[in-house]
Amino acid sequence: MTNETSPENPTETPATTRVDPPLAADEATMLGAWLDFHRATLAVKCAGLTPDQLRERSCPPSTLSLLGLVRHMAEVERHWFRGVLDGQDLGGSGRYWSEQYPDGDFDLIDDADPVADTAAWQEDVAFARETARGLSLDTVAKGRSRDGEVTLRWIMVHMIEEYARHNGHADLLRERIDGATGE
């Protein structure tokens, strides 16, 4: 396993190595471990594929692809940890979406750069880890979600749910691409 991405394996990152969450730990450790496990699972599902394979769509009319999932999760990490937890003003659009292209993370991948998109995802993951480090799960986010105030606990549980759901999609996409199956 390499520590850097390459054109041949654009999503192979240090996060490609998964660590099983502990069987017994305090709540913050457990939530962090499960979130990192699911982040690594998405990286594992993408590892070793070419840019074209990462862009491969599930089946028309769906625009779902592994690269789209990476881009979507970068947006989700960015929104919840930068925009909501840290209270940053992210402007009126995302890294990959806009008002004109609300699903740009999935739809606009034909010319997307998997290396750059994976690096952006990993940057957002690193920011999320650093921002949450040492905070109580009861910490109220500086920003607001569309439904109001949320705590770090809520964000962590939501992120685990988001990754778990999309990792199910990633399982199916990867099996369709090259037959690879597994946890």
Comma- or semicolon-separated keywords:
about 180 residues, Four Helix Bundle (Hemerythrin (Met), subunit A), globular
Give your account of this protein's structure.
It is built from six helices and no strands. By secondary structure, it is mainly α. The protein has a single domain, classed as dinb family like domain (Four Helix Bundle (Hemerythrin (Met), subunit A)). It starts with 26 loop residues before the first helix and ends in a 5-residue tail after the last helix.
Q: What count of structural domains?
A: 1
Order of helices and strands: HHHHHH
* Gyration radius from CA atoms, angstroms: 16 Å
CA distance, first residue to last residue = 18 Å
The CATH superfamily appears as dinb family like domain
Count of DSSP strands:
0
Proper CATH architecture: Up-down Bundle
Secondary-structure-derived class? mainly alpha
Helix percentage range: 40-55%
Indicate the overall shape.
globular
CATH hierarchy, class:
Mainly Alpha
Main pleated sheet: none
- Continuous helix count: 6
CATH topological fold name: Four Helix Bundle (Hemerythrin (Met), subunit A)
How confident is the prediction overall: mean pLDDT?
Answer: 90
